[in-house]
Amino acid sequence: MAPALEVVEYTDPACPWAWGSEPKFRLLRAELAGVRWRRVFGILFDDDEDPAPDPAAEAAWYAKFIDGVTEHTGAPKPPRLCWVAKTSWPASLAAKAAEAQGETVAELVLSRLRETTFVHGTPADDTDRVLAAVEDVPGLDVEALHAAMLSDEVRQAVRADWRETRSPCPEVLDITAPGPHSGRAKHLEHHVRYALPTLTFTGPGGRFVVPGWRPLREYLDAVRAAAGDRPL
User: What are the chain's domains?
Assistant: First the structure.
């Protein structure tokens, strides 16, 4: 029998709003134990983006942006951001590959990757930095993770995540709710994508979307609405 509820989480290891949402999502995942929860890595920093002409100035600007986000989320922030992540691909490949080693390991790997930016200020934006960040994660087979990161299977899975994130549902296209992070879809140069993080809840009661920075009660309301009359 199919599960009564499916949750899809659009995220990125380098997203400060996703970092600040971790405690809420951790609680929600615990409350929904046994429910299918699928994580989609949206690639906040893509490989084809032009490098900043002044990396130090870019890092200073982005550090101020992180400061503003943490004023709302209360999440930790680095004492100094040494650089802005050049790409989200290596961390996303590692986070996706870690899922094959179980939910507990996958959660620890993703948290470690986020900490490289938001605790240490040194984003894991290449393979060596990723592997160094996760080398002592309990229960992780680092060699297997590295091999999976290099596999066509995992790269295609993250590429599918990239495409899915850039096909947002109609509910997020014209959001007019006030900030600080309403979750309205982001209009990029060549694409439209979900704001990160965005959660969708789909079940017998229908599909309900909770995008951006929202209080825990909105996620719980969406769970109840999507589940309809069926127990979780």
Answer: 6-227 (3.40.30.10)
